[in-house]
């Protein structure tokens, strides 16, 4: 009788780590009276030559998990030079699960004015859509006007008595899942999991062993705590995984994680001869390469997605019943962005590995290059490229909001398209190109490599 | 029909010439490739396995190009090399399951070989805790499972104890009876190699000597019990027997290739591949 205990161990560790994060969830998010600092989008528009001066909008939307009594307020500041103007604030709140809506609309003449506060009537998932519209009251000379629109989100969370019950239920669910896995593993104990391409991927994933699982869990911990802790960069417990890579505290450990995974699979195993047991089996070279790449993507992408999903766990049943498409939509955006980011981060170690499959140089160069482009100001300045900033701009939820612009506004203006989607498009196209070059080099090197 | 072919094969690594113009055709049966360290034995086997690409010349196995048809080839050809590093982070059981799934071998066949090689007692543990001999047995087991058409074994005896070598012999004899062609590259010559159909001696990347089946028969010794010696000597006067030499309890007959030596007496024929190898090395 076969024993399939080994694959179960990482799964249990992963689940237990989620269980471990539950108290943190309680502490960071639901602690009595904790508030969050102002934060939110900020946009400055210069009116270029050739464009008539008309209205401009700053749009901000975000999802929030709120308990009954939680307060969220949106403060807007609209300043413009050399022109008299009026601005409008529209706030739309949607209870995603129940479909209930609240609207607020008002016009202002002063740069700053009292704006509404939303008090959550019940537990739930809320979507906030804020539109701030600037409209000039007079004609002015072209190229002489600057408009500055800032939206600040802040609020205060209430204490909840039944949250403990929810957390206990979550822990109970985790325990039940673990038990179910144990039972399933016994039921399928004679099943050989290494069949076909999935089996090859499983074999490659095993290369990471438990020593890579520890940094993954640590990374998840960091990600989770940063993503759920109210702060200026992430002003609420956000359901949306956007902003995840905006923080250097996340991007740097994530880079290290990705480079380590690539170096293990594409260099350490080659250098140590640990690929040879696979080379002597009837597995094609291209399928082995694809399996290696898939294993890297799995190991580096799953922590992100598990972390994002972990935030959903408490309300998972209601989301699935009330707004299942939202989950799919967000994951779609998240997938494209993170896959491009992964492509960029694996490029350096893959190129180095294809030229010289040695673990230490691949690790050093693979980590050093992106880190210099993220944190080293002289390097960034001399190259004129800041990877952290490019990632942060591309990970801007505005691209998501852009798709939500109301139809009644008519066709989007050229300036808005440039302002909103350019960093995202720039990052995705360049990122994919870099990744493609790296992958091609690595694939050619893999196909030509002899077993010496 | 040739199972393994090499035609004017060169393999060059940087400034090192591993094989220089090697031509060799091997049919079905048991073949021994012997030679000192660095003679090119392993390189030749790797070329036949599709793990290396010839710098010049052509290799074929079962009428397939090993480099370009590696996946197809390795479904029919099982190999083991001395320099294979088993990943320390998995168990031997895991590796055998991976191999079985890759080759589509039934688990019952795996268990049979595993039990014969006595690896089931430790294969659930992670490989990092294995001794060199334990790893070697796992590697041999992966090659010996299933029903390969060709077995390429590179230094199969190193690190193994006498009992394990004996078990390997039994399994290989079973495969030979089943029609598998076996090629053993080694510098340790055991009793199994004495049953070989051909012996190829490599030296400095070239074929120093290739003994075909007929050559091997010519060099066979006939070993008899004491009572048989007189009869053997008497029968040595049969047609075709050129000379009979008595060495202790042995009678060495030098005969024409066509004589079926087993019929000369009740004695058993014995070929000492080791002696042939040493002779070839010193020639």
Structure description:
The complex is a heterodimer of chains A (452) and B (283). Chain A has helices at 5-30, 163-187, 196-205, 209-228, 248-272, 276-279, 285-312, 316-322, 324-355, 359-375, 377-383, 387-394, 398-402, 414-448, and strands spanning 35-39, 42-46, 56-66, 71-80, 85-95, 101-108, 117-119, 124-136, 146-156. Chain A has 452 residues and is α+β, with helices and mostly antiparallel strands. Chain A has three domains: 1-31 and 159-193; 35-156, Sandwich (Jelly Rolls); 195-448, no CATH class. The two termini of chain A are 37 Å apart. Chain B folds into two domains: 4-211, P-loop containing nucleotide triphosphate hydrolases (Rossmann fold); 216-282. Chain B contains nine helices and 13 strands. In chain B, the strands form three sheets. In chain B, strands 5-6-7-3-8-9 form a six-stranded mixed sheet, sandwiched between helices. Chain A binds chain B through residues 2-3, 6, 190, 192-196, 199, 203, 206-207, 209, 269, 272-274, 276-277, 279-285, 450-452, and chain B through 13, 46, 49, 51-53, 70-75, 79-81, 83-87, 89-91, 93-95, 97-103, 107, 124, 142.
In short:
Chain A has 452 residues and is an alpha+beta fold. Chain A is built from 14 helices and nine strands. In chain B, helix 3 runs parallel beside helix 5.
């Amino acid at each position: 009788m076969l024993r399939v205990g080994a694959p179960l161990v990482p799964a249990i560790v992963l689940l237990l780590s989620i269980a471990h994060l539950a108290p943190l969830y309680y502490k960071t998010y639901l602690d009595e009276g904790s508030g969050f600092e102002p934060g939110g989008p900020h946009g400055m528009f210069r009116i270029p030559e050739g464009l008539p001066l008309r209205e401009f909008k700053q749009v901000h939307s975000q999802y929030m998990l709120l308990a009954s009594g939680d307060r969220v307020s949106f403060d807007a500041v609209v300043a413009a030079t050399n022109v008299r103007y009026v601005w409008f604030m529209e706030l739309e709140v949607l209870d995603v699960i129940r479909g209930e809506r609240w609207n607020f609309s008002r016009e202002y003449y002063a740069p700053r004015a009292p704006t509404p506060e939303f008090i959550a009537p019940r537990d739930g998932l809320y979507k906030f859509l804020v539109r701030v519209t600037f409209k000039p009251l007079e004609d002015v000379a072209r190229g002489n006007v600057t408009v500055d629109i800032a939206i600040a989100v802040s609020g205060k969370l209430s204490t909840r008595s039944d949250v403990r019950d929810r957390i206990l239920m979550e822990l109970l669910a985790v325990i039940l899942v673990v038990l179910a896995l144990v039972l399933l593993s016994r039921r399928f104990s004679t099943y050989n999991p290494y069949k076909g391409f999935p089996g090859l991927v499983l074999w490659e994933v095993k290369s990471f062993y438990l020593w890579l699982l520890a940094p993954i869990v640590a990374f998840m911990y960091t990600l989770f705590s940063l993503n759920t802790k109210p702060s200026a960069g992430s002003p609420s417990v956000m359901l949306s995984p956007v902003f995840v890579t905006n923080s250097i505290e996340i991007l740097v450990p994530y880079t290290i994680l990705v480079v380590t995974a690539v170096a293990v699979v594409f260099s350490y195993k080659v250098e140590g001869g640990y690929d040879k047991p696979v080379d002597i089996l009837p597995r094609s070279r291209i399928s082995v390469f694809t399996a290696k790449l898939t294993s890297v993507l799995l190991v580096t992408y799953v922590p992100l997605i598990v972390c994002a999903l972990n935030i959903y766990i408490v309300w998972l049943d209601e989301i699935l019943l009330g707004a299942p498409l939202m989950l799919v939509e967000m994951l779609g955006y998240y997938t494209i962005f993170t896959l491009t980011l992964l492509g960029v981060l694996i490029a350096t170690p893959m190129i180095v590995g294809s030229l010289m499959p040695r673990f230490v140089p691949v690790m050093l160069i693979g980590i050093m290059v992106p880190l210099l482009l993220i944190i080293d100001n002289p390097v960034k300045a001399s190259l004129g490229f800041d990877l952290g900033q490019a990632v942060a701009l591309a990970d801007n939820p505005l691209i998501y909001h852009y798709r939500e612009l109301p139809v009644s506004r008519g066709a989007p203006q050229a300036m808005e398209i440039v302002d909103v989607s350019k960093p995202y498009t720039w990052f995705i196209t360049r990122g994919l190109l870099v990744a493609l070059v790296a992958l091609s080099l690595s694939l050619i090197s893999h196909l030509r490599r002899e077993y010496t | 029909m040739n199972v393994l072919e090499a035609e004017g094969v060169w393999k060059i690594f940087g400034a090192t010439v591993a094989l220089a113009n090697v031509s060799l055709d091997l049919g079905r049966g048991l073949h021994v490739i012997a030679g000192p360290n660095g003679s090119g034995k392993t390189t030749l086997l790797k070329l036949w396995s599709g793990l290396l690409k010839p710098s010049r010349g052509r290799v074929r196995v079962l009428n397939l190009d090993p480099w370009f048809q590696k996946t197809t080839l390795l479904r029919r050809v099982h190999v083991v090399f001395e320099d294979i590093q088993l990943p320390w982070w998995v168990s031997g059981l895991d590796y055998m399951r991976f191999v079985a799934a890759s080759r589509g071998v039934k688990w019952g066949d795996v268990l049979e070989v595993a039990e014969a090689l006595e690896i089931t007692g430790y294969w659930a543990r992670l490989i990092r805790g294995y001794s060199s001999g334990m790893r070697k047995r796992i590697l041999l087991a992966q090659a010996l499972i299933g029903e390969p058409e060709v077995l390429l074994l590179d230094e199969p005896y190193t690190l193994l104890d006498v009992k394990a070598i004996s078990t390997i012999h039994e399994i290989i004899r079973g495969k030979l009876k089943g029609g598998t062609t076996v090629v053993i590259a080694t510098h340790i010559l055991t009793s199994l190699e004495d049953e070989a159909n051909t012996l190829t001696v490599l030296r400095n990347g070239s074929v120093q000597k290739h003994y075909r089946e007929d050559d091997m028969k010519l060099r066979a010794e006939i070993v008899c019990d004491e009572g048989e010696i007189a009869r053997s000597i008497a029968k040595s006067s049969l047609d075709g027997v050129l000379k009979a030499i008595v060495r202790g309890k042995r009678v060495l007959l030098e005969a024409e290739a066509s004589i079926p030596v087993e019929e000369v007496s009740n004695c058993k024929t014995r070929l000492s591949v080791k002696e042939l190898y040493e002779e070839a090395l010193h020639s």
